[in-house]
Specification:
This protein is an alpha/beta fold. The protein has a single domain (2-272), classed as Metallo-dependent phosphatases (Purple Acid Phosphatase, chain A, domain 2), CATH 3.60.21.10. The chain is 36% helix and 22% strand. The chain contains 10 helices and 11 strands. It has helices spanning 13-20, 24-31, 36-54, 72-84, 107-117, 137-140, 145-159, 185-191, 196-199, 203-212, and strands at residues 2-6, 58-61, 89-91, 122-126, 129-133, 167-171, 217-223, 230-234, 237-241, 255-262, 265-272. The strands form 2 sheets. A 6-stranded mixed sheet has the order 4-5-6-7-9-8, covered by helices on one side. A 5-stranded mixed sheet has the order 3-2-1-10-11, with helices on one face. Helix 1 (13-20) packs across helix 2. It is globular, with a radius of gyration of 18 Å. The model has no long low-confidence stretch (mean pLDDT 93).
Length: 273
């Protein structure tokens, strides 16, 4: 019983960084004499090959599917990948999937996401777990109060149907919290290149978010967004961030995660491509 997790395919990011971005040298080294778009598609195809060997229950993409929603060629490349994969992919949106400006959630961005990938928050059961798929950009851009209340109410109403012993996993793009003691020296350049509020929830939003699950057994939160592998925790909840299948931004390679469930225990090994 297993799930394959990918994140931050972010088609178009490498080329943009080579031309204009902060991570030009990293993008050039990562592309390794390939056109950046070729490298992104090559990684998708390597993952596709692995799925055919591993036979997962399903796949999860925790967001930043494309770098810019107004670039049809990048969306087309991802749709081509989807047409060749034989397993269901459950998506959640990243900040680049729900806004023309990737820092700002917008109605236009949500409409784009809903049109191409479906609901931006939902849940279903897998083995002993209830899986929540959430739009973390709503927690980052919490001033959009209607969107915020809609997702909060969804979580509250869904949790009412579960006992306190129900095991819960959450999949979303942004990590809600990072304990600074878990930030490695190799992470510092990336994480401190922006204000922490770009990467994680503000304090009051974090507290409200975790407060929703205080009477339930929230065991793991799986995220992307950082383009590195990082493990941290908040109270009893482990927060597992996975490096990008697209361009990584730390010392970790591009890759994906295999979430296995056996004998009541969950494992989540990272596999480089």
């Amino acid at each position: 019983m297993s799930i394959l997790l990918i994140t931050d395919t972010q088609l178009g990011m490498a080329l943009k960084n080579i031309k204009y971005g902060k991570w030009t040298k990293k993008a050039l080294n990562w592309s390794n004499n390939l056109e950046p778009s070729e490298k992104e598609v090559k990684n998708l195809n390597k993952f596709l090959q692995f799925t055919n060997v591993h036979n997962p229950d399903f796949i999860i993409h925790t967001g930043d599917i494309v770098n810019e929603i107004d670039k049809p060629s990048d969306l087309s490349s991802y749709k081509s990948f989807l047409s060749n994969i034989k397993y269901k992919i459950n998506h959640v949106p990243g900040n680049h999937d729900v806004g023309i400006d990737s820092d700002k959630l917008s109605i236009e961005g949500l409409n784009f996401y809903h049109k191409h990938f479906g609901d931006d928050f939902y849940n279903f059961q897998w083995n002993d777990f209830e899986l929540f798929f959430l739009n973390s950009s709503i927690f980052i851009n919490y001033e959009n109060i209607d969107f915020y209340n809609e997702q909060i109410n969804f979580i509250k109403q869904t949790l009412q149907g579960f006992s306190s012993s129900k095991r819960i996993l959450i999949f979303m793009h942004h990590p809600p919290f990072i304990d600074k003691k878990d930030i490695l020296s190799s992470h510092e350049e990336l994480i401190y290149s922006k204000d922490l509020s770009y990467w994680i929830f503000e304090e009051k939003i974090k507290n409200e978010f975790f407060g929703l699950f205080k009477d339930h057994k929230l065991e793991y939160i799986f995220t992307g967004h950082l383009h590195i592998n990082l493990e941290t925790s908040f109270n009893e909840t482990k927060i597992i961030t996975t490096s990008a299948l697209g361009l990584p931004l730390g010392d970790d390679p591009s890759g994906y995660r295999v979430i296995d469930y056996k004998d009541g225990k969950l494992s989540y090994d990272f596999h480089p491509v």
